[in-house]
Amino acid sequence: METREYYECHGHIFMDGTNYKNAMARHRPEPDKALIRERLAALRAAGVTYYRDGGDILGASAYAREVAGEYGIEYRTCVFATHKRKQYGWIVGHAFQGAEEFRTLVERAKEEKADFIKLMISGIMDFQTPGGLMGGGLEPGEIGELIRIAHGEGFRVMAHVNGSERIRIALEAGLDSVEHGYFGDEDCLRYLAQTGAVWVPTLAATAGFAGREGFGPGVAEENIRSQGRMLRKAAEMGVLIAAGSDAGAYGVPPDTGIHLEHALLAAAGIPAGIVRAGDEAIRQRFRRD
Ligand SMILES: [Zn+2]
Asked: Measured in angstroms, how far is the CA atom of residue 160 from the centroid of ligand 1?
């Protein structure tokens, strides 16, 4: 039993770290309760006492939240994430087209007792060229309104977002946490520092692609290095930085992924005390009072 305590600030309990399609099948037509319990026990054995789930469309994280207390884990979830139709995000959430449909999803999240709203703002890394993204994203002009809708209903917003422009616009609109946050610029860091939003850089999820067949050689490593450079600057500027591994994503163990994230943050030169403060900010804010 691990004696140190960890907060996993970004994970997905339904995924297994290898194949999301098989993982989804395990929870159909219903969440695999035995598997979820097994995973919670493994998480607690790995020292995890807090888990913030980035969502699924299978009811897995909702079930995990119901029973996590039995394992000594404080569990928060958006229940499902939200993404714009035809854009990246169907694995973890429901789609909307336009502000009115988004509002309907926020209402649904409220009914399903979501602790916060998860919004997919941008695409994902393509791992073909350093800095490359794919999968589109929200129009810059629609980001602010969606964040304001969620805030208006009393929710905090956790957003998957990469790339300078979208990160900056989301922070201007009051985004509460930047998930991944790859390929930002110094303006993004300034906004992070000014707004007090928390950055969850998910280094472990990128490390999962290092050496993976079919992807550009060295691209994951280069993206980790560029993320590390920005993180060091962010730390100097007083930005809140939290540890979330994207547990369950490809190459990230569902239970010990957070150990990997801490090792990568330390390797990037981010002091443990800074991460602890960021983790605590996530825990304090991402609940619905
Ligand atoms: Zn995620």
From this structure: 7
pLDDT along the chain (289 residues), means of 10: 91 97 96 98 98 98 98 98 94 97 98 98 94 92 98 98 98 98 98 98 96 93 97 98 98 98 98 98 92
Residue owning tokens 């119901």 = 66
Residue 14 CA to ligand 1 center (angstroms) comes to 11
* Rounded distance from Cα 10 to ligand 1 centre (Å): 6
Residues in the chain: 289
Domains and CATH numbers, the chain: 6-285 (3.20.20.140)
CA angle 28, 31, 32 (to 5 degrees): 95
Give the Å distances, CA to CA, from 49 to 40, 113, 234.
10, 21, 26
- The angle at the Cα of 93, spanning 91 to 98, to the nearest 5 degrees, equals 125
Q: Is the pTM of this model over 0.85?
A: yes
CA of 11 to the centre of ligand 1 (A): 6
Q: Rounded distance, CA 59 to CA 112, Å?
A: 10
Instruction: Give yes or no for a cis peptide into 29 (omega within 30° of 0).
Output: yes
Residue 78 C-alpha to ligand 1 middle, in angstroms?
11
Task: Tell how far the Cα of 246 is from the centroid of ligand 1, in angstroms.
Answer: 5
